[in-house]
Every structure is written in structure tokens, then in C-alpha cells.
Amino acid sequence: MIIIILGAPGVGKGTQAKLLSKHYNIPHLSTGEILRDFVSNPKSEMANIIKETIDKGELISDELISSIVINRLQQDDCKKGFILDGFPRTLSQARILDEILKQISNTTQRVLVINIDIPIDKIIQRVSGRFSCKDCGTVYNNNFLKPLQNNLCDECGSNIFVTRQDDEESIIRNRVLVYTEHTAPVIAYYQHMDNFYNIDGNGKVEEVNSRILKCISL
Ligand code: AMP
Fold first, then answer.
1. 122 assigned to active site
2. Is the Cβ atom of 91 under 6 angstroms away from ligand 1?
3. What is the C-alpha radius of gyration for the chain, rounded to an integer number of angstroms?
4. Which residues make Cβ contacts (< 8 Å) with residue 202, sequence separation at least 6?
5. Given 13, 36, 126, 211, which residue is catalytic?
6. Residue among 201, 185, 140 nearest 167 (CA)
7. Are 1 and 81 in contact, with CB atoms under 8 Å apart?
């Protein structure tokens, strides 16, 4: 199974992708995480440019991100399927992905597109207060999703948490603009597919997850 997760920043794409990855035992490919890993210790001019772009809330080029995705999809663990989180983010990336899928997926593999839907005016509120476990990446929020025990990750027990520089309010406002201009049109691109599902992203993580699982099982 190949699952493409769409949605504005902060709707919970990464959190839901991680749950689906565990549930179906297929890898979770987050282009944002791949890029953040790459720039975490910037040693090249390229890493510096990518870091600046992310920190401004802009998109990195379609060519570069597509080549990163193509490389990752060639690894063995993607043969039985995968979950894409954060790609495609532009119409051009969606067309490139169509070509990639034609080449790599076999006819028995189901391709599903899940759009997690949250009103744009709720995004700032959801993203401010977001933090994550430095060791396993589990995402929390100071306003509505704290770890069960103060300062300990529910998943791995680590006590080291990090915030994303691009979650700062002025940057998130720009990310929302970039999403509206470049990524929202990708929804229309997939909307007419049989396996396109628009999921209400409001509510608890488990509630959204069960809505997604219900659609997938149809
Ligand atoms: P995310 O973790 O998905 O919110 O991505 C964080 C940042 O990484 C984005 O704001 C972009 O700067 C960059 N990025 C991630 N995926 C893509 C993509 N498919 N195309 C262009 N830039 C991307």
C-alpha cells in the first residue's frame, strides 16, 4: 500500500503517518524530517541554503526534493509500500510523483491519498506550542497534547524535547501562505481519484487515526 498524506502545516500529518507506519508496517517518509536531518549539522553550501529556505518557511526546489524522494524510494524497505508525508507539495511534484509511481509500484499496490482537513484559521493555534521528542520525533503540544508524565516522552522515555525554528509565529504565517498558494491546488489534482479521502482533522489523535483507518479499510 502507498499512502500519500496531504494537509496544511500543523494538521497532524506526521503524527498520523507515524501511526499508520506502525499499523501497516511500512516506512514513513517525511520530506521535512529528511531535510531537517540533512541540515542539522550543516557542512555544505547546499545544506546552508536548504536550512535558510526552511527557516523562512519557503519551499525548496521541486528538482531537489524530487531527487531526494526518488533516492529514498529506491531503498529496499519501500518495496512493500510506504507513506509519504510532505510530498508532493506543488503540482509539479504531484506530476513527478505520478511518473515515479508508474515506474516503481506494481499493479497490486493500492495508492491512497488522505487529505487531513483543518480550517486554515486554526493552524496558527495548533502550531504554536508544538514541540517534539528529540530522540523519537513524537510530537506534542503545550496547549492540547502534553506528554502523560511531565518532561518524559510517552513513546521512548526521553527527556529531551525540541521545537522547530519554522514554528515561530511569523514563519508559520508564511508557511500557511505558501501552502495556500502552492500546496492546496494539489488537493484538486487528486480529488477525483477513487482512493482520495478527505478526513476531518479535528479532535484527538486517536479519533483522527480511526477515521483514516476506516477509510482505508473500505
Ligand atoms: P514539514 O516538516 O513537512 O512541515 O517541512 C518543513 C519544511 O521543509 C517546509 O516548510 C519546506 O521548507 C521543506 N519541505 C518539506 N517537504 C518539501 C517539499 N515536498 N517541497 C519543498 N519543500 C519541502
1. no
2. no
3. 17
4. 118, 208
5. 13
6. 140
7. yes
